[in-house]
Amino acid sequence: MIYYNYDRFKVDVQDLANGCAVFEADTILAIARGGMTVGHALSMALNIRNLQSIRCESYDDVAQRDTVSVIGECDFTQSKRVLIVDDIVDSGKTLCALIPILQKRHPDVLFASAAIFTKPTACIQPDFSLHVASDWIDFFWERDFLKPDSL
Asked: What is the pTM of this model?
């Protein structure tokens, strides 16, 4: 298990923002929950005020499900280019399920995806990514805010 700390995150957000800037997104869609911290930070780094979220789940704690549930709607009426953000593309099932749904609902919007980590075995790779994950990542936002009796 690799602990991913805040200091590394600050550097990575700037690097990911620099890479994603070429897409010229006008909206960021954070995948809840892991993508919300990354989405907020990227929205600040890229100065994109239109930050939305959608809930996609393919894990129960650390066990991966067979299906992905997509919960929620987005308002892309003012959007032309949406950057979908998550913390990690592990199996890729979340993006594989979400992107076709979004494209069908919003055919005039161009979508791209970004994640800090990706696994080479994922069924889809994000358009923008920084690191290859070779082990389980323990993100600071998953550990540092737990109640002391949860540790």
From this structure: 0.89
